[in-house]
Amino acid sequence: MFDFDLFVTALFGWPLAKGAMLTLVLSILVMAVSLVIGSFFGLAAGSKKKLPRWSIASYIWLFRGAPALLILLFIWNGLPQLSQVFRAAWFSPFVAAFLALTLIEVAYLTEILRSAFAAVGRGQREGAEALGFHRWQIFFLVTLPQAMRIAVPALVNEFISLLKSTSLATVISLKELMTVTQFAIATSFRFLEWYGAALVYYMAMVSVLTVVQIKVERRLSRGHR
């Protein structure tokens, strides 16, 4: 029988709230770093030079092809075996999850941004060159802003996927939302109430992101007219 009182206690209790905050912080940090790296990788992926193009293609092939769980376990269990540096106290489950998810996200965001950069009209870049803009000025002032406008829907969808992927970190005992939920179930043996409360948290975060996506798209479409 479903215990509604326990469900409410779980939903508004500090353990799940703290786990949800950790999930959100991890997702934001991974997305922010991946966006920066992915922007430069996306630019390099469209290069006419073979070495950077093939290097980026190999990176994407590896980290899009390997299961996220395998990469996470490789980082957490494998790196300490390779070097004592990763046996120190700083190498926590949070750091391991951050590294693993960033490696994966960079691969996906590189593809998204490469397509967005390619969609920016060449004529606009040539116009900026005619005005005397330098290469990096053209990138930051012309190409990047327009590419981001094009990529917004895909980027928000990718962030939602990332938010859910953080649940994989439960295998390395990172105390994110799902790990806290599993600990609570292990002591109470109440599955429906705790899973239900965790579901509410995930749906709330995804719903907020969806609303933000809609508003940003509307604002960008108005500004583009």
UniProtKB/TrEMBL annotation:
It is found in: Cell inner membrane; Cell membrane. GO terms for cellular component: plasma membrane. GO terms for biological process: amino acid transport. Residues 20-213 form the ABC transmembrane type-1 domain. Coiled coil: none annotated. Belongs to the binding-protein-dependent transport system permease family. HisMQ subfamily. This is Polar amino acid ABC transporter, inner membrane subunit. It comes from Rhizobium leguminosarum bv. trifolii (strain WSM2304). The lineage of its organism: Bacteria, Pseudomonadati, Pseudomonadota, Alphaproteobacteria, Hyphomicrobiales.
